[in-house]
Design brief:
Elements: H1 7-17, H2 32-41, H3 50-60, H4 63-68, H5 73-76, H6 93-98
């Protein structure tokens, strides 16, 4: 916990990562194969890189399962209107306006 400063990061660490009663293993990350299998069998959302998911999908899923799959790449990885926060008189402000 030495590297984390600030209440928000500490709260995320305490709630999501640190071992506790809800999470005795301290591991909130899921293997790619396990996550994709849950997507296939359950109503489950899983975040991963598409370049990693597609080989698993093509090898293990049937065609009707592939047709029902939806990916939301543009909204998560490539947002349409990203927000950029900067100081009011930052020298970078003009560069951000142009780009």
């Amino acid at each position: 916990m030495q590297l984390m400063e600030g209440d928000a990061r500490k709260g995320i660490y305490q709630k999501m990562i640190k071992k506790n009663k809800k999470n005795p293993s301290g591991n909130n990350f899921m293997e790619l194969v396990q996550g994709m299998e849950r997507v296939r069998k359950e109503y489950f959302a899983f975040h991963a890189l598409t370049t990693s998911m597609y080989p698993i999908i093509s090898d293990t899923w049937q065609e009707h399962e592939k047709c029902a799959l939806r990916t939301h790449i543009n909204n998560v990885v490539y947002p349409q209107n990203p927000d950029i926060n900067t100081n009011k008189h930052s020298p970078l402000l003009e560069a951000f306006r142009i780009s």
